[in-house]
């Protein structure tokens, strides 16, 4: 099992909202060269192209399925398949934009300074990442995956990770003329029989399900669904509130 564009886009409005908030904080008028790191299905790349239609924009992602969807939506934009870990730009950039992707990449101690080094002086690194890893939803995934029934079959799957905000300040402030760090918790209002499970299947659960066959996936999801329903019960109107913390970084070289 890999990334599924349709499943990911099931909550497209909720997933897009942090990107829109990040986009509004970028202090650039006419960036010439832009890269969307971890562009996925291209829904955020589209926003970049609409704001800066004259810019040279490239979308980068490791998922062939996501890139196929992105190319169908934005045929005039260049999309390259590559992992962020090994990517280096051909030329210096004005804007590196990354929405909900860099938490999948390890070693932020070296990654973030390397990304700033890819910018022109005055260029901007704009990043949004989930910061929800200690929430009940994510703890329940890790606990179930570590249970004897599943540990041997799921293996070393990980949901990504981020550093503390003070660590990003320590890494980036010596390299930047301006640095903004903030966090926002989005209280997402959802409906349906298993909305939190559906949300997690689009992103966080992808590596956990990858090594399981279909019957095992169904069993794992059923067990997790029961735990999530207890942790996030619907109200009397059938609405489930799912608070989701996001962290934001805007670093100008």
What does this structure look like?
The protein has 253 residues and is an alpha/beta fold. It has a single domain (5-252), classed as Vaccinia Virus protein VP39 (Rossmann fold, 3-Layer(aba) Sandwich), CATH 3.40.50. The chain is 40% helix and 24% strand. The chain contains 11 helices and 7 strands. The chain has a 7-stranded mixed beta sheet. Helix 2 packs parallel to helix 3 (43-51), helix 5 (108-117) crosses helix 8 (165-172) and helix 6 packs across helix 11. The protein is globular and about 50 Å long.
Topology:
Layout: H1 5-8, H2 12-23, E1 33-37, H3 43-51, E2 56-61, H4 64-73, E3 78-81, E4 93-99, H5 108-117, E5 119-130, H6 136-146, H7 148-154, H8 165-172, E6 178-190, H9 195-201, H10 206-209, H11 214-231, E7 240-252
Parallel strand pairs: 1-2, 1-4, 2-3, 4-5
Antiparallel strand pairs: 5-7, 6-7
Helix pairs in contact: 2-3, 5-8, 6-11
Q: Any key phrases for this structure?
A:
253 residues; alpha/beta; Rossmann fold; 7-stranded mixed beta sheet; 11 helices; 7 strands
Quick structural summary:
With 253 residues, the protein is an alpha/beta fold.
